[in-house]
Amino acid sequence: MAVIASIVVALAALLHGYIFLMESVWWTRPATWKRFGVADQAAADTTRPMAYNQGFYNLFLGIGAALGLVLYWSGAIDAGKALVLFTTACMVLAALVLTTTGRGYVRAALIQGTLPLIGFVLFAMTA
Prior knowledge:
Blueprint: H1 2-25, H2 30-35, H3 41-73, H4 77-99, H5 106-124
């Protein structure tokens, strides 16, 4: 169970790393801002500081989940498990908050929150 849980958590961490790239590095690329429903390049330029900051939140959550996995598999089982559970719970809660911003964000919330939720549940069941 721990191996499967770890794979799911690692995928969630990678997803949040990818979200970081989109929000903090590639935000002003049309392919990126269109994916986030931004109307035009001017709006992308205006929202760039917000997206940049938000991207780093995603990066830090992904790093936290990855660090938790490293700790867990290095023998610091309790600390690693606690960090994995905390970061995946934060990812899921952020996805839930995203659903409160409008119906158009439900798909994004499902993408952002499904892997962390599965990882959380599976990791909570590990010894």
